[in-house]
Write a structure and sequence with these properties.
about 475 residues, Alpha-D-Glucose-1,6-Bisphosphate, Chain A, domain 3, 4 domains, six-stranded antiparallel beta sheet, about 20% strand, globular
Length: about 475
């Protein structure tokens, strides 16, 4: 290890291993020492000695050094590292899928510049969570931190491979955009990896033919300090520049990618955000129709429990079966594999595709929206309105000192007024008369912070607002009575 930072112990390591990935502040628990131990542990746990392991990284300043440290640990334990260099997370999934090799992607996604992390995949881009191997990786890495990493007799090698052109061609083969009407789109890459992948997939940077797209770029320069805004389009403040640019340039729509470019958000021609639930419904209809045309009759589509009620309604109307799941990246990947689902959508703008090894791919979702929108002549706002008949609050986070007490207040207030469901946190479906508008809400405690996350939907904006305000008042009660 070259950096002059205090050594990492087992307790510190545990603090950065989350439910579905590794995430932490660079130079604290997340150091080249801990990353090297995690690389060695990953090889042992997934049984990659003598086989290939894919390693990729985003544009954060610490990412190249971490990728090298991980490769040192992985090769010491016998893996041959395929270093794909700068890439988006879904590009690393492509490499894992097409090479049928486990992968490690260095990114902290949408987190601020001080953070970094690792997203792990088993061979074939399959997810890893605490319950399916990440806890074993953590514990094995802790052993290596305490005892040192012992190199096996047949250590591995490192090979540098660029898969961007192949990745771009693969996506073009899944969604054909060559015949759509000409569109002007503004793309905000947020100084993240979309600045690399958008020109390759939607442009000609990877040597592919030009598409009928005029792209107006915003913040395509790769810069892990995020000088313009955080690369987290889920926060409305980070969409402001895109919304203004769409209107200024008279564009047909806008796209915003997060830091590692695995999530994509859509803005219509007026600068209004299109909900991820609407995108999920649009893509679901397209994927259901595609496989039905190939003769599939038993089609499953996954949606997590926080997507709009319109998503399962749309899936059923299209002739498929909606599969409702908890929130969670690796969990949904597992459910994609278990059910053979053709598509899966989350409220957080993660979109999963069977034809992409069940992994999520924001670029592919954007291409489906472009294909659907580009095949007709109405504005995007009209298309989006058809897929957004109800009112959603979006996710509202509240810092709460006593999360269990707040949770209990909500349960007591709505007992007898709604049907309770505890698939993930607490979902309450309103017990309303037939002539009254429907509503539901979900409250989920954070696993890592003193937060309660609230999502509300109602048949109309007024109904949603009443329920939202009541639940927020219960959550945010001041225990001091002030």
């Amino acid at each position: 290890m070259t950096s002059a930072v205090p050594p990492v112990d087992r307790a510190l390591l545990t603090s950065i291993v989350k439910a579905y990935d590794v995430r932490g502040i660079v130079g604290e628990a997340l150091t080249e020492q801990s990353v090297e131990a995690l690389g060695a542990a990953f090889v042992d746990v997934v049984g990659a000695a003598g086989d290939r392991v894919v390693v990729g990284h985003d544009m954060r300043d610490s990412s190249p050094g971490f990728a090298e440290a991980f490769a040192r640990g992985a090769t010491a334990r016998g893996a041959d590292v395929v270093n794909i260099g700068l890439c988006s997370t879904d590009e690393s999934y492509y490499a894992s899928g097409t090479l049928d090799a486990p992968a490690a992607m260095f990114t902290a996604s949408h987190n601020p510049a001080a953070y970094n992390g690792i997203k792990f995949s088993r061979a074939g881009a399959q997810g890893i969570s605490l319950d399916t191997g990440l806890a074993d990786i953590r514990d094995r890495a802790g052993d290596f931190l305490e005892q040192g990493i012992s190199a096996i007799a047949e250590t591995g090698s490192v090979q540098r491979v660029d898969v961007l052109a192949e990745y771009a061609a693969y996506l073009r083969g899944l969604v054909d955009l060559s015949g759509i009407r000409p569109l002007k789109i503004v793309v905000d890459a947020g100084n993240g990896m979309g600045g690399l992948t958008v020109p390759a997939v939607l442009g000609t940077a990877a040597g592919l033919p030009a598409l009928p797209l005029e792209i107006v770029p915003l913040y395509f320069e790769l810069d892990g300090t995020f000088p313009n805004h955080e690369a987290n389009p889920l926060e409305p403040a980070n969409l402001v520049d895109l919304q203004a640019a769409v209107v200024e340039h008279g564009a047909d729509l806008g796209l915003a990618f997060d830091g590692d470019a695995d999530r994509c958000f859509v803005v219509d021609e007026r600068g209004a955000a299109v909900t991820p639930s609407a995108v999920a419904a649009i893509v679901a209809v397209r994927e259901i129709a595609r496989v039905a045309a190939l003769g599939e009759t038993d089609v499953n589509v996954i949606h997590n429990l926080i997507t709009s009620r319109f998503v399962p309604e749309t899936i059923e109307a299209a002739g498929a079966t909606p599969v409702r799941t908890r929130v969670g990246h690796s969990l949904i990947k597992d459910r994609m594999a278990e059910t053979g689902a053709v598509f899966g959508g989350e409220h957080s703008a993660h979109y999963y595709f069977r034809d992409f090894w069940g992994a999520d791919n924001g670029m592919l979702a954007a291409m489906h929206v472009l294909a659907e929108f580009g095949a007709q002549h109405a504005p995007l706002s009209e298309l989006a309105d058809r897929f957004t008949p109800y009112a959603l609050s979006g996710e509202i986070n509240s810092v709460v000192d006593d999360v269990p007490s707040a949770y209990t207040r909500v349960v007591e207030a709505f007992t007898g007024r709604g049907e309770f469901d505890e698939l993930d946190g607490l979902t309450v479906f309103g017990l309303t008369a037939e002539d009254q508008p429907f509503w539901w809400f979900n409250v989920r405690p954070s696993n890592t912070e003193p937060l309660l996350r609230l999502n509300v939907e109602g048949a109309d904006a007024a109904t949603m607002a009443v329920v939202r305000d009541e639940v927020l008042a219960l959550i945010r009660v001041d225990p001091r009575g002030a």
